[in-house]
# Entry
Amino acid sequence: MKRTIPTAIISLIAHGLLAQNADSDEQRLSSTVLDNDWLGSGALTGDWGGQRDSLKELGLEPYLELTPQFLANVDGGADTGSAWEALVDLGLEADMEKLVGWTGGSFFVSAFYFHGNDLSSDYVGDFNAISNLYTNTDFNLFNIYVGQSLLDDKLFIKLGQIAADDDFMVADSSLLFVNSAFGPLSLESGNIAAPIYPLAAPGAFVSVEAVENIRFQTAIYAGDAGPNQSNNHGFKWRTGGSVGWAWFAETAIDYELLGSGVFKLGGYYATSEFTDFNTGATERGLGAVYGVIDHQFLKPQGGHPGLSVFLRGGASPDDDVATVTAYVDGGFAMQSICFENDALGIGCSQTWFGDDYLNATRAGGTAVTSSETIIEATYSVALAQWCSLQPDLQYIINPHYSHDNALVLGARCAIVF
# Structure
């Protein structure tokens, strides 16, 4: 089993890196900035005297990653100030075929520890979190699931504690960015309580490639992943009753035209009870549809940089209960610009809030903006195969709560042990 972009988004968030080429979307940036056996190894602690390979032959792949980060609001927002954050992500992947002879079987478990303060609520006053690492939880058991691959890997099923943003709404090119808006769509994260980072919940996921280059996937999750607070260590999810269930579906089409790419069309429907902003009564059900284009025009090869672009967007018709009624983001990522292992990205996102939500919120005495815009420029370079550095700049236009445009500077480091 490999940690792919869909099955371990936390791992990619912790790296903050993206590399796309003709062979695989999973490939990480390898180091040629500095080149010797230690810097070129896949982990700071090396191969453990050959024990890593021995464990892999048995079907076991443990991992540990550390991502420290510094961010500062240097102008605008609610106040100027800074935040230190650190995420420790660890887990174990098991190939059950190698381990116990279970053909096509796999097992994955992950956990993390987070420490730091929240730049968004403390200083910026925005709706979309400045950092996709930040969480109010501290130690949290995240993904715990078993997987089964069938029909020559054309059918994949997983059951257990899982998260929707591992598999849905994903544009690989957008994973380079630091702002949380470029992860799960605000159209989802701002409206329903389905499981996304930092909280997973019970669910079942099925993906099938019925026709070559066309994949269909669907999943059902617990309707409420639980409160994002320090005493939630991953198991305070709720389902059924008033919180209901969350159902997702998505079709992905791989294509080759002026390069190569993927087009995705999907949606979700949550059966939870929501408060009607107009009447205050409860209403069951909230849904949305979305689309994703992730296209690579140029592959990084022969000393020439690569170029990828992404565009995502969606809308919800349920204005009376939806906080976010429309969302769009887009941008580009260039790879191998100065070094073989660097990536430069510029992205922009726009969040539109529902009129009924705005009217009710403002009537309650809270002044909020009708939309929020994020512009982010980021650059990541691999100092070694196990270490990357990523300076980052964000400009928040019309922060939802503070109204004052904010300029954020920061840097992220990622270390694989």
